[in-house]
Amino acid sequence: MMADQVIHKGLEGVVVSTNALTYIDGHAGKLMYRGYLIGDLAEQSTYEEVVWLLLHGELPNQRELAALKAELVANRTIPEHLLTLLKLLPADTNAMAALRTAVSMLALSDLESEDNSEAANRRKALRLVAKMATVVAAFERIRNGKEPVLPRPDLSHAANFLYMLNGEVPKETMARVFDVCLILHADHEMNASTFAARVTASTLSDIYSAVTAAIGTLKGPLHGGANTKVMEMLLEIQDPDNAEHWIKEALANKQRIMGFGHRVYKTEDPRATVLRRLSRELGEKQDSTRWYKISRTVEQEVLAQKGLYPNVDFYSASTYYLMGIRTDLYTPIFALARIAGWVANLLEQYADNRLIRPDSEYIGPKERPYVPVNQRN
Ligand code: ACO
Q1: For the segment 318-344, what is each residue's pLDDT rounded down to a tens digit?
Q2: CATH 2.60.40.650: does it fit domain 226-322?
Q3: Which of 114, 138, 217, 349 could form a disulfide with 196 if both were Cys (CB 3.0 to 4.6 A apart)?
Q4: Ligand 1: which of 255, 262, 263, 295 to mutate, judged by most atoms within 8 Å of the beta carbon?
């Protein structure tokens, strides 16, 4: 690139494509999937409906929804050799690394993995939505020395995941809370993991490779990995009475507070609004408002001192904790929700592809003569 060109570090403000999936107004705190407000979807929709919406552009009618559910159910099981792989993983394997490896392995048993036609990609998209939930649940069971639980065809995607995770059918209210969490995480415009997926697809590589790249990108603490870090922080604070002092000290030490700030939102992330309510309601129901109280104090201090608002990762942490989910599964759960958005974005990318290949300004040494090894100091 020419030396006088502007460098957009972090690609902030750079528009790399169009998308017909998700709209964000970061100043108004507005988020819509295909024109539907996230608050309305969280209130009235289901994850299955949102999957259809993202993949097809419209909400499904009853027949379409029934067909989608049947296809997801039919694809829920994972191959035996993948279960064997999960059993062979070292005990302390990072949960996102396990998911990344498992998704890569899923490609090996998909006869259509190298078929990049739209029809094959749509089939693979649903396989990924269905199977990633099973992978995460099986990983959790196996590392706890338990047998994986076979999926149940009569349960929704959300209820079935909790069933496979815990070995018992969840209460309806729990399944609904989890369903809402899945809806809230399903897509989010050109976030880092979606961009990584699109970059991979732009080389005309396959959908599994693109999703594997996305999982690796989501894993980082500046992106999806933040939800686990949030819970670690809340656990360290432990008591609502410690919260103000803890956070003041952290900010004085210039610590980055996980679950706050966002590249796009300059006001409250509308997903955080819903999750704050879920976290409070679950806490009240379980007579365990400690995490909500700590979170509120942290939120107030970070806003007062830094002008930063909570993002999707902040209140999802205490919500999952109250659901009894182990902290390092929060990011894999983010992934098994976001898979809907990733595959919808990939379909868009393949349909109107151009290789994504930006520039970089060279700042290394100027041209110089080669020195043979015996003449070097
Ligand atoms: N805690 C403390 N300070 C922060 C935080 C935070 N969470 N977020 C931003 N800042 C400060 C930075 O220190 C910086 O200050 P400076 O200009 O004085 O150096 C300023 O705000 C701008 O921060 P950047 O990192 O340049 O903003 P960017 O848009 O690149 O980063 C990001 C956005 C990565 C989300 C950032 O806010 C952050 O690190 N947050 C914590 C991690 C997190 O919660 N990530 C999840 C995001 S949502 C998601 O991906 C699903």
Answers
A1: 999 999 999 999 999 999 999 999 999
A2: no
A3: 217
A4: 262
